[in-house]
Amino acid sequence: MRIVNVVGARPNFMKIAPLLDEMRRRPGIEPLLVHTGQHYDVRMSDQFLEQLGIPEPDLHLGVGSGSHAVQTAQVMTALEPALMELQPDLVLVVGDVNSTLAAALVAAKARIPLAHVEAGLRSFDRSMPEEINRVVTDVLADYLFVTERSGVENLRREGIPEERIHFVGNVMIDTLLRNRERADTLEMPSRVGVRAGEYALATLHRPSNVDDPVLLEGYVSVFEEICRQLPVVFPVHPRTAGSLEKFGLLDRLRRIDGMYLLEPQGYLEFLGLTSRARLVLTDSGGIQEETTALGIPCLTLRENTERPITVTEGTNRLVGTRPAAILDAVGEVLAGGGGEPRRPEYWDGRASERIVNILVERVGAAA
Ligand code: UD1
């Protein structure tokens, strides 16, 4: 069974790593890796592949940045002839980035069976490009692997046939559990210059947050306030770095006492920082899940989440984008509020094994 696995952007790499490991262990599977090149900086791509033991991609499409249409179209144009040549039994895509959608469209039109890992998540907010990518990818996929039960409900509501839906858990948590000790041995807090358990970790990269000068200025003022109480460690995504520069906020941020601005971190470095943080402020999707698995309080600077289990069972709170609301929530976390979080069902390190078992059984039989 030849499987073409497609990755493109940073959050894809930690999802594909345990799947590739699992596929390589099975004698009947020939896993191939295609990297679209959506993310191309060493800090956004190569260091993840290296740290996660992901082999050199069999094919690199070299697509790079562009508008949504350009990026999506370029992945499609480059991938179509590759799939024609490789003739895989399955194309597997993960997550919700533009590369995911582009690969799904090509596979579906070539009538190659398609698997989507992390299917069914919905923010119900079509202003997020990822939401459109999720909805379209799920409509096209033959095998939908779901991380939390809300996803199963969403897919049923959208009329996806039951036999396509598989609730298997979270492959990103497979990677987290495998790498947690390695990450801790890096002693990231002391490397950065803060004390374990006594800093906030922040990330921001959503266009809705960082392309808006008023919101971005609000976050800078939030960091100024938090830093009066505890240091803030902030690895800055390239998009965010660009916006801070453009809106003239970078100097103000740099001048804050107790603010630690870092380059985008590697997987292990970031995990090492997350697992020892007092709290995390983020607009990322994946980090909501990682903090839940680690039991670290997470404040999500968005109005909605496609990962509701991180709120109902985990450590996540949706605090929106208003500085006053964010600071209130920070105050509550620091005062020790919040109940005992639970680790969600099947976030147990074995999701990739479940997925590959299903693929062997279903696709293998057809191949
Ligand atoms: C993409 C995903 C988003 C994911 C995020 C993680 C889509 C629609 N969005 O957003 O879901 O959460 O990745 O980072 O697919 N850039 C670099 N170096 C790189 C890559 C990008 O400098 O290696 C800069 C470029 O200026 C680029 C900008 O970042 O224009 C945005 O990159 P892009 O791939 O369009 O989307 P992200 O914002 O990273």
List the helices and strands and how they pair.
Layout: E1 2-7, H1 10-25, E2 30-35, H2 42-51, E3 59-60, H3 68-86, E4 90-94, H4 98-109, E5 114-119, H5 129-140, E6 143-146, H6 149-157, E7 165-167, H7 171-185, H8 188-192, E8 200-202, H9 207-210, H10 213-226, E9 232-235, H11 238-246, H12 250-254, E10 259-262, H13 267-274, E11 279-282, H14 286-294, E12 298-300, H15 309-312, E13 316-318, H16 323-334, H17 351-366
Parallel strand pairs: 1-2, 1-4, 2-3, 4-5, 5-6, 6-7, 8-9, 8-11, 9-10, 11-12, 12-13
Bound molecules: uridine-diphosphate-N-acetylglucosamine (UD1).
Uridine-diphosphate-N-acetylglucosamine (UD1) binds near residues 39, 40, 65, 97 and 242.
**CATH architectural designation of the largest domain:** 3-Layer(aba) Sandwich
CATH level 3 topology of the largest domain: Rossmann fold
Radius of gyration: 20 Å
As a percent range, the share of helical residues equals: 40-55%
List SSEs in N-to-C order. Answer: EHEHEHEHEHEHEHHEHHEHHEHEHEHEHH
Distance between the termini: 6 Å
Number of helices, where a helix is a run of at least 4 consecutive DSSP H or I residues: 17
Strand line-up across the major sheet: 3-2-1-4-5-6-7
Q: Which molecules other than protein and nucleic acid are bound? A: uridine-diphosphate-N-acetylglucosamine
